[in-house]
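Recap from last week: sequence in, structure out.
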Amino acid sequence: MTMQDPIADLLTRMRNAQMAGHVTVDIPNSKAKQAILQVLLDEGYIDNFTAPDDVKGVITVDLKYHHGTPVIEEIARVSRPGLRIYKESNDLPKVRGGLGVAIVSTNKGVMTDKAARAHGVGGEVLCTVF
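Predicted structure tokens:
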């Protein structure tokens, strides 16, 4: 069976692993997933991730907990293969009044909504995290 939306699969695996209380989760490797995980790491939503050099490998994500509760309260896919959501820099969403982040794929790479506004670029809104 082929995977239709690998980014949604990444988010769902992380959400399910945190609900089950797992410390790590394994995810099939891709450059797009690594870019999203790097943004989550930079923003402090995950502890770490290790990615293999080969394409067929598996990314291991170390999930982050604070006093036993997951740091990621809500993670949701915004743009999907059937309905792409593109926004200009001044129209990028603010998640929960700026408390969360929206991860945006721009022509300058994958970054948060704040960084995209600072660079003055828009792009595809991949997901929101709170």
